[in-house]
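ok new one. same drill as before - structure tokens go in, u give me an amino acid for every spot. 197 of them this time. try not to just spam alanines like last time pls lmao
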């Protein structure tokens, strides 16, 4: 029952974010939509930031599942590296309110909004990515954080700038170039990288 209330709150907040953005989402509106008491709301989410972290975590769970599916469907290293970048940009484009919240929330606030299930799913996602990289020649050096920064970092920064602009453009317009750049950055980290040149 208790986790049901938490889920109701997160789902209600996610709906509001999708409809009007995080900036216009009030805790009172979320509480009413979720049908919970003030006590329940503040028990699970003592701050607006904590709720924001939980909303991002819920959205990221679906997104990470889609990215994992892209890797599993990839027919080679280059295809996998590029498809993840393109899929990531499509998610940011298609769900702009959540993307803005995701790109502006400090990592420590995001981590504080993760429940144990979300933490486990997040860890599983990164384990899956690391396994895929190892299957395709990554030795574990440099570390996964560096590989991910090279792989997704430029697309992330491009999206952050576009979404912060008054009139944000289509993130897909640069997807092919960013995907090709990600491949050029990650390819040297994969042993025997003659495949997919």
């Amino acid at each position: 029952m208790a986790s049901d209330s938490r889920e109701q709150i997160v789902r209600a907040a996610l709906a509001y974010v999708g409809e009007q953005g995080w900036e216009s989402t009030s805790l009172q509106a979320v509480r009413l939509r979720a049908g919970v008491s003030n006590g329940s709301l503040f028990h699970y989410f003592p701050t607006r930031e904590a709720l924001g972290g939980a909303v991002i975590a819920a959205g990221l769970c679906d997104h990470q599942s889609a990215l994992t599916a892209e890797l599993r469907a990839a027919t080679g290293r280059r295809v996998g590296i590029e498809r993840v970048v393109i899929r990531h940009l499509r998610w940011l484009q298609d769900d702009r309110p959540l993307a803005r919240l995701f790109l502006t929330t400090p990592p420590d606030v995001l981590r504080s909004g993760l429940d144990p299930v979300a933490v486990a799913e997040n860890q599983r996602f990164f384990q899956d990515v690391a396994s895929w990289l190892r299957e395709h020649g990554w030795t574990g050096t440099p570390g996964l954080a560096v590989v991910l920064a090279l792989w997704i970092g430029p697309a992330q920064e491009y999206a952050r700038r576009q979404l912060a602009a008054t009139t944000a453009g289509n993130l897909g317009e640069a997807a092919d170039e960013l995907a090709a750049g990600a491949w050029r950055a990650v390819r040297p980290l994969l042993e025997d990288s003659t495949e997919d040149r």
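The domain at 1-46 is CATH 1.10.10 (Arc Repressor Mutant, subunit A). and btw The CA atoms of residues 8 and 187 lie 43 Å apart.
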